[in-house]
């Protein structure tokens, strides 16, 4: 199984609130997407984390906008006046990650879209598992759309891959839940632990890692993502928010 692939047909506008300068782009399937570029400062590993984490969360029942691969010919940005964007498009020729654009959504700020105690605890457990440090009140990386909560921007998770720290080290890495938007739900996390851990089977991990295109990953890396995520799953007392089970 692989992610669907579409082709970019029009660069609409840059999303300047995103540090990696994602753009709103139209595809040849007439869809509108937020395009995250492999040529951005964070590099293709941020896109690898987006796929593995986003697709894992989706399969565990959370709302994540659809992800597709998008072929980019930088010529579609030729009328874009900003030199920085021209350069980003040139560096990003080829495959990039397209996130389904949620029109009219707004950033979660606590005023709407709260998923309830169990929902908050579920998100906290999962962010702790994948070491996602990018879900604070400063930048919640969650959108409210049609009154529901949608999770975006998982590019900073799985940060072991930047230096390839060992699986043992990643497994033992604590998680600072105090900075998380849903830190108040920490006491409800241990009650969900067995259910979530049991749902993350070896087959599920293999499946989501398998969705990353060969352009951004080699087979040795696929094995490493698998071993790191498995080791962390088996060592939950090191990072579980809300204390011992
Ligand atoms: N699917 C989407 N639909 C609508 N708006 C979106 C979507 N994805 C992202 N955005 C908007 O674009 C902003 C930047 O997106 P995102 O957080 O994915 O980019 P980033 O460059 O990784 O950002 P950061 O600065 O958090 O690292 C979001 O905060 C949100 O306002
Ligand atoms: Mg963001």
TrEMBL record:
Native species: Kribbella steppae
UniProt name for this protein: HipA-like kinase domain-containing protein
Domain HipA-like kinase: 16-222
Pfam families per the UniProt record, alphabetical: HipA_2
């Amino acid at each position: 199984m692989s992610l669907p692939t579409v082709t970019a047909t029009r660069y609409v506008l840059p999303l300047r609130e995103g540090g990696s300068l994602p753009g709103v782009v139209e595809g040849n399937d007439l869809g509108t997407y937020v395009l995250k570029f492999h040529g951005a400062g964070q590099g293709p590993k941020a896109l690898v984390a987006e796929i593995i984490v986003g697709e894992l969360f989706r399969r565990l029942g959370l709302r994540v906008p659809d992800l597709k691969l998008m072929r980019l010919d930088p010529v579609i940005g030729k009328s874009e006046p900003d030199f920085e964007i021209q350069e980003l498009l040139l560096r990003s020729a080829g495959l990039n990650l397209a996130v389904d654009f949620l029109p009219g959504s707004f950033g979660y700020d606590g005023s709407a879209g709260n998923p309830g105690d169990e929902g908050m605890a579920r998100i906290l457990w999962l962010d702790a598992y994948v070491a996602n440090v990018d879900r604070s009140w400063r930048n919640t990386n969650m959108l409210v759309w049609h009154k529901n909560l949608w999770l975006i921007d998982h590019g900073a998770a799985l940060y072991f891959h930047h230096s390839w720290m060992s699986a043992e080290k990643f497994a033992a890495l604590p998680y600072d839940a105090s900075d998380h938007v849903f830190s108040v739900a920490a006491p409800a996390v241990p009650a969900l632990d067995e259910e979530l851990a049991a749902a993350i089977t070896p087959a599920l991990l293999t499946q989501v890692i398998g969705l990353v295109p060969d352009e951004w990953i080699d087979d040795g890396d696929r094995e490493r993502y698998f071993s790191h995520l498995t080791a962390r799953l088996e060592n939950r007392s090191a990072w579980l928010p809300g204390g011992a089970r």
